[in-house]
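Suppose you are handed a protein chain with no further information: no name, no annotation, nothing but its sequence. What can you learn? This example shows the usual starting point.
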Amino acid sequence: MDAVFVSEKKGELKKILESDPYAEDSFARVGYKLKENVFGEGKIYLYIKASEEFIKKAEERLKGVAERIEGEKAEKVIKIIEEEESNVASGISLFD
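A reasonable first move is to predict its three-dimensional structure. Written in structure tokens, the prediction is:
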């Protein structure tokens, strides 16, 4: 399941994401992507691809710091992140 969250509180968001990285249900273990200023608005977007159960826990942990978004805006964020990853991967393969 994909989920996108948006926040204006970069410091607080990073603190939550980086806390207890060795816990079984930590953001570090699941993996996440951060993207800043996607729409020129100075906000931070958090993209997580995880189980529905983890996404529900993430919503609770991020309450008051980031809110989940859906629809076209979320789809656009996911597309931008995936395209960047694809470009990086193909760029690396050019030098192998």
